[in-house]
Amino acid sequence: MGEALVSVVIPARNAARFLEEALASALAQEGGPVEAIVVDDGSTDGTAEIAERMGVRVLRREHGGIGAARNRGVEAARGELLAFLDADDVWPEGKLAAQRRALEADAGVDMVFGQAVEFGGEGGESAPEAAMLPGTALIRMESFWRVGLFREDVKVGEFIDWMVRAREAGLRMKMLEGVCLRRRLHEENTGRTAANRLDYTMVVRAALQRRRGRSVE
Questions:
Q1: How far apart are CA 155 and CA 13, in angstroms?
Q2: Closest by alpha carbon to 87, among 144, 129, 127, 45?
Q3: Does any domain span residue 144?
Q4: Per-residue tens of pLDDT for the chain, all 217 residues
Q5: Measured between alpha carbons, how far is 180 from 103 in angstroms, rounded to an integer?
Q6: Helix boundaries (H) for the chain
Q7: For the chain, what is the domain count?
Q8: CA 160/CA 197 separation, integer angstroms
Q9: What is the rounded CA–CA span in Å between residue 36 and residue 38?
Q10: pTM (whole model) above 0.90
């Protein structure tokens, strides 16, 4: 497991402001090889150029949303393990190494998560909290494909929907005690607008409908 390639998919749209810091935190991870894939989702700034300058793979596409961007990155990935990092967030040192060890210790675990802290807000850095977020996850690639790709018809909530389907598929998850993500708060966070939050309702409704369908059967 220590030598397994980790593919890190980083969806990015007009992310030039923070991308270099995010990429540096991924490329600095120890414990095994890392493949970083930046999916430029129709940026109009220097997002792609920053990624290319740092020597990582860049996939350019027309703007299609975060779910579609994540999917294109996964489809291009070559790793046995899969991770996600938003272009405005940061991984702490040792994140991947700790998660690799957890997967190596238990072949029956499909994915591991960790704690997250938030920073950049008015109150300073938050206390660590257990978080099932894209940026805190390390997933076996074969397990990811048991669930399938993300929804592409919502602006937010695509990972919540995927997690619901992962539970339905019987994937096993483990939560680590250490911090695995520093999540940046700023005025352009996708989930902060009321319009985008409506997509969460769609995701929950779809999960309830699937559950009712199974109970009828």
A1: 13
A2: 45
A3: yes
A4: 558 999 999 999 999 999 999 999 999 999 999 999 999 999 999 999 999 999 999 999 999 999 999 999 999 999 999 999 999 999 999 999 999 999 999 999 999 999 999 998 777 899 999 999 999 999 999 999 999 999 999 988 999 999 999 999 999 999 999 999 999 998 766 554 445 555 545 555 666 566 666 544 5
A5: 15
A6: 19-27, 47-53, 66-76, 95-105, 141-147, 158-168, 194-216
A7: 1
A8: 12
A9: 7
A10: no
Burial class (CB in 10 A: 0-12, 13-18, 19+), 62: exposed
Host domain of residue 74: 6-216
Q: Smallest Cα–Cα separation from 74: which of 128, 66, 48, 52?
A: 66
Instruction: CATH number of the domain at 191, please.
Output: 3.90.550.10
